[in-house]
Design brief:
The chain is mostly helical and 288 residues long. It has 12 helices and 2 strands. Strands 1-2 form a two-stranded antiparallel ribbon.
Length: 288
């Protein structure tokens, strides 16, 4: 039972990440490979404030979201100069820069040693120490974020994002400042990713830079592509599949000495075939 609860917690955390990235990739049509950086900002903010200053978890999550949002605005000033493939390449570089900060600013992050001793959330004296209670908390937050994103994309702001994705030039001609829409969306997406990072840090109780590398950004992007661009429900199911599939492959009877490698091969082949025959993902409205 504890194993199932663990997987459900991971699904909830990664659902927040994938739904938030879908805002910028799916709805705004901007290919970003820097989401793990904002995920890490939230995780490190929570880890540092809790382990060193005994700050309440919920305050650290808010602080992490604000810091990530402001960092995204700063990045947005750089990214607005680029379009299409160049935009993706710059986000690639920004993720590497943030990862390098996590790895080398040892006075703040302890570098590769990581930060241990991160407490679980506490609310009105109740500590979410048991995994089942933690699951309820993160599940409610994930659902709240889903509703928030649905509200945003169904609003006039969201309709403008979709128009921007379809034809940015025409949207600008109609009088919309598309750069502002991009920056606001990027900032909101980053803030939500930071919330996921706060929950991850509190759940694992230890973080180090390896969790927030470029590979993690690519994995989060694959959740969005598999689930389907511009569809939050599809992204959720994509997250479920990519979290559970590697676990299911553990029970396939591969020889012990090559089991890990064979699981990765099968995992990769399944994704390749899925993209060949379902290029829009499970429930996507667009192709990447």
């Amino acid at each position: 039972m504890e194993y199932i609860i663990h997987l459900l917690i991971l699904i909830s955390i990664y659902s927040i990440l994938s739904m938030s990235l879908n805002l910028i990739v799916g709805y705004a049509g901007l290919l970003s490979v820097t989401h793990a950086a904002f995920y890490g900002v939230g995780a490190y903010t929570t880890a540092i404030l809790i382990s060193r200053y005994e700050t309440n978890f919920f305050l650290t999550a808010i602080a992490g979201a604000i810091i990530a949002g402001l960092l995204a605005l700063l990045f947005g000033l750089i990214l607005k100069r680029f379009k299409a493939d160049y935009y993706a390449l710059v986000t690639f570089g920004l993720n590497i820069i943030v990862f390098s900060v996590f790895l080398n600013w040892q006075e703040l992050t302890r570098g590769p040693l990581g930060i241990p001793g991160i407490d679980r959330p506490e609310l009105f004296g109740f500590v979410f120490k048991e995994n089942i209670f933690f699951l309820v908390l993160v599940g409610l937050v994930a659902y709240a974020i889903y509703e928030l994103i649905e509200y945003v994309v169904k609003s006039s702001f969201g309709r403008t994002l979709k128009a921007l994705r379809e034809d940015e030039v025409t949207t600008e001609v109609l009088g919309y400042k598309t750069e502002n829409y991009k920056m606001v969306t990027f900032s909101l997406s980053a803030a939500l990713a930071a919330i996921a990072g706060s929950f991850f840090a509190s759940y694992i109780t230890f973080i180090d830079p390896s969790t927030f590398s470029l590979d993690e950004s690519i994995f989060i992007l694959s959740l969005v592509i598999l689930g389907g661009l511009a569809n939050s429900r599809g992204v959720f199911w994509g997250t479920v599949v990519l979290i559970l599939l590697p676990e299911a492959l553990r029970f396939v009877g591969f020889p012990t000495d090559i089991a890990a490698q064979m699981r990765q091969v099968v995992y990769g082949l399944l994704l390749v075939f899925l993209m060949m025959y379902r290029p829009r993902g499970f429930m996507g409205k667009y192709r990447l």
